[in-house]
Amino acid sequence: MKAGLVKGNAEIFVEGAQRRYPGLPLKEEPVEIVDMPIPVVKENRVLIEVEACGVCYTDIDIIEGRVRCKLPVVPGHQIVGRVVEAGKGVEHIIGKRVGVAWIGKTCNSCEFCKRGLENLCVDFKATGCDLDGGYAEYTVAFTEYVYELPKAIEAEKLAPLLCAGSIGYRAFRLAGVFDGARVGLFGFGSSAHIVIQIIRRLYPSAEIHVFSRGAEHRELAKRLGADWTGHPSENPPRKLHIAIDFTPVGETVARALELLEKGGRLVINAIRKQTPVLLDYAKHLWEEKEVKSAANVTREDVKKFIELYTKYGIETHVQTYRLEEVNKALRDLKAAQIRGAPVLKIR
Ligand SMILES: [Zn+2]
Ligand SMILES: [Zn+2]
């Protein structure tokens, strides 16, 4: 089978690094298209013929060495495909269309798993990082960690549900949006453009503010229901109760906290920040402002979000690429030259 493989990045990995990387690896076509054997299906696993796989900013973090993974690795954790083979006892799933998300496997027995926080599992195995992912014609996944998906919708439109949508949903849930809340979304990529629709549907009276550098992104935000849009340097008419930061840079944390009302909450939806987060207690945290990060997803987040998607007909905006164009997809994503989410259409 054909697969996109990342062979190495260790030389630029710096533990806890807070400096900006030059991004050279992306210019050097870091994902190599190789011929690999179709993976063997073991117990509790399914073999999936991949139809589409989303490309996520986390994949860039993996490639550039900010997120440590096994190497070589087949990235991709927003997988949509058809089950073609299943381990013993789960054959009923053969033929179904399923999705695979970042949460590839958890231990089910550590203190976090027991508290319903399997996203923080001490033995969390991430798809496309600890386990090979979906930049390939076939992939294997643990049966307990796949989700049935509707068959009537194009695979590429479903791919963003598995990460952008699910992690966005988790960030939304942690943010504690309420009726009439003034909400600020910072950055308007694939996750934010889904979150805005969730808020619009579940809290019609919320006032949604979108901060983005791109005029095209602000336009899309307006169309999807934003009440106010602006450049991150612009001030909204009134302070915000809730902010969700989707950007890869540290400066947004301070900016969002500065715009929060007393008692407001900021949720950060990013695995790594490329630049330092510098805070001033009086300006950014005083008067009961809260900051929380959203890390990974639980299976519950993915299932709940797929339910919402089906119920409300949430739109996903995608730009498709062939597997061979994966490096271009990554570069376009990094350069923020995409409306919505990049997705590899594998078949
Ligand atoms: Zn992702
Ligand atoms: Zn665990």
What can you see in these coordinates?
- By secondary structure, the protein is α/β, with parallel strands linked by helices.
- The protein folds into two domains: 2-163 and 297-345, Quinone Oxidoreductase, Chain A, domain 1; 166-293, 3-Layer(aba) Sandwich (Rossmann fold).
- Helices cover 26% and strands 25% of the residues.
- It is built from eleven helices and 17 strands.
- It has helices spanning 24-27, 57-63, 111-114, 155-158, 164-175, 190-202, 215-223, 251-258, 281-285, 299-312, 326-334, and strands spanning 2-6, 31-35, 45-54, 79-86, 97-100, 103-105, 125-126, 138-142, 146-148, 182-186, 207-211, 228-230, 240-245, 260-268, 290-293, 318-321, 341-345.
- The strands form four sheets. Strands 3, 4, 5, 8, 9, 16 and 17 form a seven-stranded mixed sheet that branches. A six-stranded parallel sheet has the order 12-11-10-13-14-15, with helices on both faces. It has a two-stranded antiparallel sheet with strand order 1-2.
- Strand 16, helix 11 and strand 17 form a beta-alpha-beta unit.
- Helix 5 (164-175) packs across helix 6 (190-202) and helix 5 (164-175) crosses helix 10 (299-312).
- The longest helix is centred in the last third of the chain and has 14 residues, at 299-312.
- It is globular.
- It binds zinc ion (2 copies).
- One zinc ion is lined by residues 106-107, 110, 112-113, 121-123.
